[in-house]
Design goal:
The chain has helices at residues 22-27, 41-46, 70-88, 100-105, 120-133, 138-144, 149-156, 160-172; strands at residues 29-34, 50-55, 60-64, 106-107, 110-111. The protein is α+β, with helices and mostly antiparallel strands. Strand 4 and strand 5 (110-111) form a beta hairpin.
Length: 179
């Protein structure tokens, strides 16, 4: 279960929007139904089954149109929005210790989560917030998160954009890129 907070606390530095429960997250979103071309035949071209969800406070979006069912596209778009929030929005501070969600996912220093799991965006946001807080020092970040540096890097590689973002920031900070 994802953390839940009141919407007036949104973007206050306490909870990342990728960690909000879905109901709360959707209160701050605009949903648009669109038509997209591609496979699916006449049904897809005549019906607005595509979904674009925009998080209004950050202007970050998630969209999906590959399925013929609007409900399925909405679920995919919402997951993509949460991943994009994890990638595109940083908290200015981190908690004193890793979240309970993170702690539940760590076993003997190994982080276990599939990149398609519902908890993945929240974990990705926490990892990126921590790495940013420690100025892109993966060793210090992994020590804080109670996992090895290699486990943290392996986790970030599950979302190639996150790994590329980390390396971009490391280069800007004068650090060597990770492999």
């Amino acid at each position: 279960m994802m953390a839940s907070i009141n919407s007036e606390h949104e973007l206050s530095g306490k909870t990342h929007p990728a960690c909000y429960n879905l109901e709360l997250l959707l209160k701050d979103c605009q949903i648009e139904h669109v038509r997209r071309s591609g496979p699916g035949g006449q049904h897809r071209n005549k019906v607005e089954t595509g979904v674009v969800i925009k998080h209004l406070p950050t202007r970050i979006t998630g969209e999906a149109s590959e399925r013929r069912q609007q409900g399925r596209n909405r679920s995919i778009a919402l997951f993509r929005l949460r991943v994009n929030l994890a990638l595109g929005y940083r908290l200015s501070e981190i908690a004193e210790s890793p979240s309970l969600l993170w702690q539940r996912r760590i076993t003997n220093g190994t982080l276990k989560v599939n990149s398609e799991h519902d908890e993945f965006p929240a974990l990705l946001a926490e990892a990126l917030d921590t790495i940013t807080y420690y100025r892109f020092d993966v060793k210090s970040s992994s020590e804080f998160l109670n996992c090895s540096s290699s486990q943290l890097i392996k986790f970030l590689k599950k979302e190639p954009r996150a790994f590329a973002l980390l390396n971009q920031h490391r280069l800007e900070a004068g650090l060597h890129p990770l492999k």
